[in-house]
Design goal:
- Chain B: It is a multi-pass membrane protein.
- Chain B: It catalyses: a quinone + NADH + 5 H(+)(in) = a quinol + NAD(+) + 4 H(+)(out).
- The complex is a heterodimer.
- In chain A, about 75% of the residues lie in helices and about 0% in strands.
- Chain A is an all-alpha fold.
- Chain A has a single domain, classed as Helix Hairpins.
- Chain B is mainly α.
- Chain B has one domain.
- Chain B has 21 helices and two strands.
- Chain B has helices spanning about 1-15, 25-45, 60-75, 80-85, 90-110, 115-135, 140-170, 175-185, 195-210, 220-225, 230-255, 260-285, 290-310, 320-350, 360-365, 365-380, 385-400, 405-430, 435-440, 445-465, 465-470; strands at about 50, 55-60.
- A two-stranded antiparallel ribbon of chain B has the order 1-2.
- The model of chain B has no long low-confidence stretch (mean pLDDT about 90).
- The chains are: A mainly alpha, B mainly alpha.
- The interface between A and B is large, with 43 and 42 residues.
């Protein structure tokens, strides 16, 4: 394990990382917009956050700047906190309506 | 910075009060904590820019002033939670602590100097609000509001972060001043990345635009405000909005003031501004629920605040910052009062529509008076704080040559008079319909005093705007 990790990351051109992260992010956005189950929507949001993590790590490795990687740790920690709150909200709703589909929730209308 | 420490530590300590059998201590203690935070915040006034965490947080007069506004707003809002104390709400200590923690997020938002702190501030503020939105656990509307707020909020946090990542890629830094330098003169090897920078910038605008409920990212606001318990909805529409706009201004002024960047965000922001004014005001006209009307009104006020962002003059301490500060203060005071009266009436009469206010001037003259003052202030009638809020923003915009925008905003604020006068007409001109609307709404002496103080503040801001206006 004496390999330098930034060098390993740099064996792939930077723009590939950007395209990959953009693709992951778009899949996440698409999922949020089309899926109807709250848990799946939530997973798609996590996918978007992970796309951001990939992008930040790649930039950080290419620039030899640790800031981006530290940012990734913060995103992970905050995402974990968000998961805790989000799953609690979904469980609360499940207890009341016995389902997690978002289209059941239509009591508030425009 | 000291206020962050005070609120976090005492907020944690406040959680332990939940072990007490009685709720009576909680409200005074929470208010005391806020007073201490306000005091230590004042100590930082005029001490010059102090930077913390290797320059990630910077405390200057701008952040001290906005911290003051959010803490005072929370302080004025707390008395309206007395019903929770009386009803023996089992989780009250947690609610108060979550409010204190979300204030920490708001303070980080007004004093960040690094995009990491912006992200953390937004998240600390929002995660606490997701929980509070769903605090009425058995109520399906509250559940729905929490889920909608949570899913939308975390989605747009992801969007904001994607923008941050692209900006980091294009500039190699998260620090506001360094981003600004890199936007003007890209470092060697970064010149070809300017399109990525612009895309990242626009994506960030979307992310923050969601948090301050600017159109076209406003769609969550009416639903979430309507479902959220009124007390917390008031917190959302005042503290979250004030902190969000301070953060927005800091981002634009400190990171993207360069002419090439302005060429991209200025037209976008102008379009958002026009759309927000239109949707907020026209949407509010058609509502039948006062709470939903207040939600649309908060969208429309986001539109007025966006004018101040569009008309900024390149520095943090200028007409724009002063305008936003004064407007946020006047708006927060009036909105707290409106939501406070609405909460008292809705708790007693179990309805939130305009007819629920019928005959209020007969049964509760004080509530009717407080709501009238706050509605007049929100509509921008002279002698109230809201008038000078609009005046400062419009005059800053005219000086910078946005006459068309100002004319449009004035027309829209004329529309707003229609829906702000509706509660006043219901209270003063309509007789009580039935038994419930003919009985007085119970109001504690503490709440009456707070309502009077809020009305007084609104009038003072409208008669002597100089007390606050030239601070920044």
């Amino acid at each position: 394990m004496d390999q330098n990790i930034p060098q390993v990351i740099q064996t792939v051109p930077l723009q590939y990382y950007v395209f990959f992260a953009a693709a992951l992010f778009s899949i996440g956005v698409l999922g949020v917009l089309t899926r109807r189950n709250a848990i799946i929507i939530f997973m798609c949001v996590e996918l978007m956050l992970n796309a951001v993590n990939v992008l930040l790590t790649a930039f950080s490795a290419y620039r030899a700047d640790p800031n981006g990687q530290v940012f990734v740790f913060f995103i992970m920690a905050v995402a974990a906190a968000e998961v805790a709150v989000g799953l609690a909200i979904i469980v609360m709703i499940y207890r009341n309506v016995q389902h997690t589909a978002v289209n059941l929730l239509n009591r508030l209308k425009f | 910075m000291n206020s962050i420490i005070v609120l976090s530590v005492l907020g944690l300590a406040n959680l332990f009060l939940g072990f007490l059998r009685s709720n009576r201590l909680l409200l005074p203690v929470a208010m005391l904590i806020l007073l201490v935070a306000l005091g230590v915040n004042y100590l930082d006034w005029n001490t010059g820019p102090l930077s913390f965490f290797s320059g990630m947080l910077v405390v200057d007069n701008f952040s001290v002033a906005f911290t003051g506004i959010v803490v005072v707003t929370a302080l004025l809002l707390l008395p309206f939670s007395q019903k929770y104390v009386r009803d023996g709400e089992p989780n009250l200590a947690e609610y108060y602590s979550l409010l204190l923690f979300s204030l920490v997020g708001a303070i980080m938002l007004v004093s960040y100097n690094h995009l990491l702190m912006l992200f953390l501030g937004i998240e600390i503020l929002s995660v606490a609000m997701y929980v509070l939105a769903g605090s009425d656990k058995r109520n399906l509307r509250s559940n729905e509001a929490a889920l909608k707020y949570f899913l939308m909020g975390s989605f747009f946090t992801g969007v904001l972060l994607f923008g941050v990542a692209l900006i980091y890629g294009a500039t190699g830094t998260f620090e506001l001043s360094q981003i600004s330098a890199a936007v003007q003169n890209p470092a060697p090897g970064f010149e070809s990345l300017t399109p990525m920078l612009y895309i990242g910038m626009l994506i960030m605008l979307v992310g923050i635009g969601f948090k301050v409920s600017a159109a076209p990212f406003h769609f969550w606001t009416p639903d979430v405000y309507e479902g959220t318990p009124t007390f917390f909805a008031a917190f959302m529409s005042t503290v979250v909005k004030t902190a969000g706009f301070a953060a927005f201004l800091k981002l634009l002024v400190q990171a993207f003031p360069a002419a090439n960047a302005q060429g991209v965000w200025l037209p976008t922001l102008t379009a958002m501004c026009v759309l927000t004014l239109l949707i907020g005001n026209v949407g509010a006209v058609t509502q039948t629920s006062v709470k939903r009307m207040l939600a649309y009104s908060s969208i429309s006020h986001a539109g007025y605040l966006l004018i101040a962002l569009v008309a900024f003059n390149g520095q943090l301490y200028g007409a724009s910052a002063n305008g936003i500060m004064f407007y946020s203060l006047a708006y927060s005071v009036a909105t707290v009062s409106a939501f406070g009266v609405l909460k008292l009436v809705a708790d007693a009469r179990m309805r939130e529509d305009y007819d629920g206010l019928n005959g209020l001037a007969k049964t509760n003259p004080l509530l009717a008076f407080a709501l009238t003052v706050s509605m007049l202030s929100l509509a921008g009638i002279p002698l109230t704080g809201g008038f000078f809020g609009k005046f400062f923003i419009f005059s800053a915009a005219v000086e910078n040559g946005y006459i068309g925008l100002v004319v449009f905003a004035v027309v829209m604020s004329m529309v707003s008079i229609y829906y702000y006068l509706r509660p006043i007409i219901a209270m003063y001109m309509r007789p009580a319909e039935d038994e419930t609307t003919a009985t007085p709404v119970p109001v504690g002496p503490f709440q009456s005093a707070t309502l009077l103080l809020l009305a007084l503040l609104t009038v003072v801001l409208g008669v002597l705007p100089g007390l606050v206006a030239g601070m920044l």
